Each structure stands twice: as structure tokens, then as C-alpha cells.
Amino acid sequence: MFFKKKKKDINKDPFYREKDGLVIYLKCDRCGQVMSFRILKGRDFVVAYDGRSALMIDKLYVCPKCYNQISLKAGFKGSYKPVYFELNGARFITEEEYSEQKGG
Ligand SMILES: [Zn+2]
Fold first, then answer.
1. How many domains does the chain have?
2. Does a structural domain hold residue 11?
């Protein structure tokens, strides 16, 4: 059997890799709005000193529809592989879910 692309498991790694950084797709806990955010290499990442990750992000987003605050904290290895992540105010969705709901 052949598979074009391995299905992404966002429970393990919700970060989509791009040339300049990572992309995440979120769904607001309060109003259900879907949104996407870019996390840029060299701008959004800071060096981590927690002993388990090399880089970290600590971001605060606001839902454009209901102004719900969404916070994201995550630690990464040098290869941008997530070690841990914590999201409050929204949940991760897949790119497919995002484009489906954005279109509708
Ligand atoms: Zn919202």
C-alpha cells in the first residue's frame, strides 16, 4: 500500500513546518473561530534554559472574532521538534480542518 503523505498527528506535534518557521492552526474555545498563526525562526523563538528544550516560544494571541485570549507556550529541540506544548483558550486543529472551516 502506498500513502502520499503521512497523516499528521496534531496531538503529538501540531506544528507545521515551513521554510521560515512553523505554522499552527487553532480553533477558539469560546466562539469556534478558526485561525492560523506563523511562528518565525529567529523572531519568535527564544533560547530555553529549562534543561529539556533548546528553544521556546511564549505567545499570546487574541481571537479576531470574540477577543478571547489564547496563550501558547512550547519548547523545542534544535530541529524545531516539540518537546512540550501548552495551549489555553483554543485547541489545535489540522490544516485540513482549517481550510474546510475557513471556506464555509
Ligand atoms: Zn473566539
1. 1
2. no
Residue 31's pLDDT band, with cuts at 50, 70 and 90, is: very high
Residue 5 within a domain: no
Distance 72 CA to ligand 1 centre (A): 15
Q: In DSSP terms, which residues pair with 72 in a beta bridge?
A: 59, 87
pLDDT band at 100 (very low <50, low <70, confident <90, very high): very high
- pTM confidence score: 0.89
**Residues whose beta carbons lie less than 5 angstroms from ion ligand 1:** 28, 30-31, 33, 63, 65-66, 68
Contacts of 72 (CB under 8 A, 6+ apart): 24, 57, 58, 59, 60, 61, 85, 86, 87, 88
Could you tell me if residue 60 is inside a domain? yes
